[in-house]
Design goal:
17 helices, alpha/beta, 33-stranded mixed sheet, 23% strand, five-stranded mixed sheet, 734 residues
Length: 734
């Protein structure tokens, strides 16, 4: 086959929809007319004088009868252009468009225009090839090499058009390099959708329905045009092909934008900058992509950023996230993810949000496997430290902090809020449960407020739980406490030379609970070892178990009372008896993180069943179900809190006196939180090495302020005062 074919001279701008795919009785403009932003009756043919002026200004057309304009049309503003096919031009009068100090006169100059609809008051200058686009009002297109739309454009959606083979469908190979968890992207896809599709691979009926729903989400007919929304600015760029761009989008210096939907609006404008190359993707509202980034087969959630040469391939990046410099491959990343360093690498995993990948981190090496089908699963708050190296396959509970090290084997870390450390000197893995609560309270308490503040989305399609203490983490804590009890009992039996055989886990847990409930001296000399933590024969030593077990219980109590106080606030006439009647019930122990939204496993199963049965017929209906579950979530969370408070106290039913004691205890915990926020931040101010870079205390204070001026510490003290006031008020109700 020839690479370059010779076609008839009149073939430009004609027969956009080839005969086999042209609907009966329709012309090639049928779908264009459905898409166009203006009523068809606004257009008129050129007057003879206008044609004469256009020719005088060195404009040409394959047929001047195909050039349609509005009543307000100044032909002197069109200079040195070539027009092919039917071109419809909106209001055009002498004026200047300005954007960021760039001022260009309205008009069309030095461009090739093929079968386009052009809005009012545009400035199109030096566009080498502009084919089959609908361009909104007050747009600036300047110095663009090529803007082209094919008849089979899918704008980044994972569908096939009529006459196409299934092999051309775009898939995202999420969570796994082998492609066994692939999902088809679509405009409006959120992290919950990607999780639903990628995770439940064993539900074959669900998989078939999701593919069908996605295919039906777009018209499979050929002939749809590219779209440029109102007040877009595209300048100094090379190639834009098969793209749909929302209003108020700013694109400058892009190398290649192909097969994309770029969502943008006046309230949430998206910007794309220099050297960017994006292929086969969906970009959310309010995104920023700058400075040489590359993304292929991807979805970018709302209010997310790619910067400084980041590479994002076969991945979903959730809302409110930023990736700079680094390489990210085959990942499903939930909202509020931060990864800012050139030598960071993240491959083949699901990271469940509120995460931070440090410089030098190599997350997911496949070199310990014969195949590329391994994965990594990290709960909320995942934070591997500098130069951390992790191998597949690994699983981490929520808020695991990993110290700098090369971890030699696969890991399964079930203890949330823990610090993980590789100790090669002693040839052992070490883990400190509840580390965040005991030693890093400033970061933990600031977590939710920080992410709420960064959430700039106007339309929050993806629901997100930001609180670090929520049903998912509380259930992890309950499971962790049981493990600590069992491991403590086994350590005690080893130290006393007593046999473990024949003892049930229930008996071991009871013994461990009794030991941990006693004085610290009972555990001081025990070497407590974790089990099934690392795929190796070396020891896994659990540190400060006595303190961590108590910290875990305080975390459960604080979560419970805080949420029950919220219920009492919303029911000002209720007392404890009413609350118990409304909220008591069996504790829901299994919660699923759907892209940032938590839901009971039973609801997730019902969601899947309703999709498979056809009760939820499309993605809009599925998103509607997410929304209804989110509306019910606060009450579900409060019921979980009540059951958790009973469970942590070993009660089936609570008395009023026990409730008042829990309130008093929560006040103690709130004081502890406030004090630890202050003390954990004060370490930075007291650190002599931190102070060493300043000439004196005055310079340090001028540069970074004093700890007493810290905004978050002030906020925490104010919140503590309000919390104590509320506890006293609720306690008076009885």
């Amino acid at each position: 086959m020839d690479m370059v074919s010779i076609l008839p001279a009149n073939s430009i701008g004609k027969n956009f929809i080839s005969a086999p795919y042209l609907p009966k009785g329709m012309d090639e403009y049928c779908y264009r007319n459905l898409q166009t932003l203006w009523p068809l009756e606004r257009w008129r043919n050129l007057h003879a004088a206008e044609v004469e002026m256009l020719v005088k200004n060195n404009n040409t057309s394959s047929d001047w009868d195909d050039i349609l304009v509005t009543d307000i049309f100044d032909p002197t503003l069109l200079v040195n252009n070539q027009f092919f096919g039917m071109v419809r031009i909106g209001r055009l009068q002498k004026s200047v468009l300005e954007h960021n100090d760039l001022r260009l006169p309205t008009g069309i100059t030095g461009s090739i225009i093929i079968a386009c609809d052009i809005g009012d008051d545009v400035a199109i200058h030096n566009v080498g090839y502009l084919s089959h686009f609908i361009i909104g009002d007050r747009c600036i297109l300047s110095k663009v090499d090529e803007m082209n739309t094919s008849d089979h454009a899918k704008f980044g959606n994972g569908i096939v058009k009529e006459g196409e083979r299934e092999e051309v469908r775009i898939w995202l190979d999420l969570m796994n390099e082998a492609g066994c968890r692939r999902v088809a992207p679509f405009d409006g896809m959120i992290a919950a959708d990607a999780w639903l599709w990628a995770k439940y691979r064993d539900d074959r009926a669900l998989q078939a329905r999701l593919k069908e729903i996605t295919q039906n989400s777009m018209d499979p007919h050929r002939g749809y045009y590219g779209l440029i929304g109102d007040q877009c600015v595209i300048k100094n760029s090379l190639v834009l092909k098969d793209v749909k761009i929302g209003s108020h989008c700013y694109i400058k210096g892009a190398n290649k934008l192909k097969n994309l939907t770029i969502n943008s609006s006046q309230a949430e404008p998206t910007q794309i900058g220099e050297g960017v190359e994006l292929v086969n993707g969906i970009i959310g509202y309010g995104c920023h992509i700058f400075y040489g980034c590359k993304a292929v087969r991807f979805v970018l959630g709302d209010n997310s950023n790619l910067k400084y040469g980041a590479r994002l391939i076969n991945s979903f990046l959730g809302d409110n996230s930023t990736i700079s410099c680094c390489e990210v491959l085959n990942n499903l990343i939930f909202p509020a993810h931060e990864q800012h360093h050139n030598n960071s690498f993240l491959v083949a995993g699901v990271v469940m949000g509120q995460s931070n990948i440090a410089a030098g981190a190599t997350i997911g090496s496949n070199h310990n496997s014969r195949a590329n089908d391994n994965e990594l699963q990290a709960g909320r708050g995942f934070w591997p430290g500098l130069c951390t190296s992790l191998k597949h396959s690994c699983r981490f509970a929520s808020f695991v902090l990993i110290s700098k090290a090369d971890y030699p084997a696969e890991l399964d870390i079930p203890l949330p809020f823990s610090l993980l450390n590789n100790n090669p000197a002693l040839n052992q893995l070490e883990m400190m449960p509840a580390f965040w609560w005991m030693y890093n309270m400033y970061a933990l308490a600031r977590n939710a407020a920080k992410y709420h503040k960064r959430d700039k989305r106007k339309n929050k399609q993806q629901n997100i739980e930001y609180d670090c203490l929520a049903p998912d983490t509380i259930e992890e804590i309950f499971a962790a406490c049981r493990l600590l009890e069992i491991w403590t009992a086994k350590a005690w039996l080893r130290s006393s030379g007593r046999p473990q055989e024949g003892l049930s886990e229930k008996a071991l847990a009871a013994k461990g609970r009794m030991i941990l409930s006693g004085p610290e001296e009972q555990t001081a000399k025990l070497e407590i070892l974790g089990e099934n933590i690392e795929r190796s024969s070396r020891k896994v030593v659990i540190l400060k178990v006595w303190q961590a077990w108590r910290a875990y219980h305080d975390m459960i109590r604080y979560y419970s009372v805080k949420n029950l106080l919220a219920w009492m606030q919303s029911h000002p006439e209720a007392d404890f008896a009413v609350m118990q009647k409304e909220l008591s019930g069996k504790r829901v122990e299994c919660w699923i993180n759907f892209g940032g939204q938590l839901m009971p496993e039973q609801e997730a199963d019902r969601l899947r069943a309703d999709i498979t049965s056809g009760r939820l017929k499309d993605w809009k209906a599925i998103h509607g179900r997410y929304g209804k579950l989110w509306e019910k979530y606060p009450l579900a969370k409060q019921r979980h809190a009540f059951a958790s408070l009973c469970a942590v106290q070993g009660l089936r039913r609570m008395t009023n006196e026990q409730w008042l004691a829990a309130l008093e205890d929560s006040a103690r915990i709130q004081h502890y939180i406030s004090d630890q926020v202050y003390l954990s931040r004060k370490k930075d101010y007291d650190n002599p090495f931190h102070r060493s870079t300043f000439r004196n205390d005055d310079e340090m204070e001028a540069a970074i302020g004093t700890i007493e001026e810290n905004d978050f510490i002030r906020q925490m003290r104010a919140e503590t005062g309000e919390y104590l006031r509320l506890v006293a008020e609720i306690a008076r109700r009885g």
